[in-house]
């Protein structure tokens, strides 16, 4: 499908981490990256699980993608490697312009199932993105709002 | 310690579920409870993982507590049963009056370690509650902001 935006994998350096501070979901993950960078535990410009879109040199949207191994798959049938998507966020002034969809489309392009924890009131968004709410399971989901996307031939795992 | 509020375990019935709709974090967990209640899969007034505080007959604060078994403990040393706390929320008009602290104190009264995923900008609150940020581990924490509380004799697990 046509994607009007250029989704980039974000390398970790102090400039990227500074841009991350504009996002509400800035948290333990970013603080840990900053510490590792300062302590030279990770190299400048090392690869990160973050992908983003720049507009006029400014990072305006981002998400994190993390591959979960088949042996930990409790969502999909047949069990397989899948992507966990988190921290999808578009800066307030840039919402409603398709940045979120561009990131989600990019995630889908790996053709692996995707699982995300929907934020409050995000149901309509995930529905528009072709995601479905997973059947809630307390032990697995622990208060999360799991939404899943199935590539062709994949269905929900029955727990 | 003195707790000025009466924290109650919330039984699941249609009235409680209706009150839950006032909370932002209403999601898959509550929808699933409602379906189970309608389908008579769970009984009316069955026990829930939710605890709350009423003011004038209205549920104004709530949280969910879920016991995780020692064999899944990846946070505490020595490994042990611990509580996962989620969906701590006080309705907007009732904030700043100690309801949140009352719920957290109640959770601590079980004298088990506690782990929670801090919402955006909740660092100061958890700090005041005596929680510490856990050392971030991508595989375990996957974008979460884990905060932990240690009862006496318990420390952080080194991964």
UniProtKB/TrEMBL annotation, chains A, B:
Domain N-acetyltransferase: 10-155
Record's keyword terms, sorted: Acyltransferase, Transferase
Signal peptide annotation: none
InterPro entries recorded: Acyl_CoA_acyltransferase (IPR016181), GNAT_dom (IPR000182), YlbP (IPR017274)
This enzyme's EC code(s): 2.3.1.-
Protein name in the entry: Uncharacterized N-acetyltransferase JOD45_000443
Organism: Scopulibacillus daqui
């Amino acid at each position: 499908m046509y994607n009007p935006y250029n989704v980039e994998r974000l390398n970790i350096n102090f400039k990227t981490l500074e841009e991350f501070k504009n996002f509400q979901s800035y948290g333990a993950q970013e603080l840990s990256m900053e510490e590792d960078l300062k302590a030279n535990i990770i190299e400048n410009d090392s690869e990160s699980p973050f992908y983003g879109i720049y507009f006029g040199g400014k990072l305006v949207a981002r998400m994190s993608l993390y591959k979960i191994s088949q042996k930990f798959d409790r969502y999909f049938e047949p069990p397989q490697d899948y992507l966990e998507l988190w921290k999808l966020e578009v800066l307030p002034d840039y919402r409603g312009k398709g940045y979120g969809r561009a990131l989600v489309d990019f995630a889908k392009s790996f053709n692996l199932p995707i699982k995300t924890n929907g934020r409050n009131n995000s149901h309509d968004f995930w529905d528009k993105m072709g995601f479905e709410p997973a059947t809630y399971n307390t032990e697995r989901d622990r208060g999360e709002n799991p939404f899943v996307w199935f590539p062709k031939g994949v269905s929900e795992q029955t727990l």
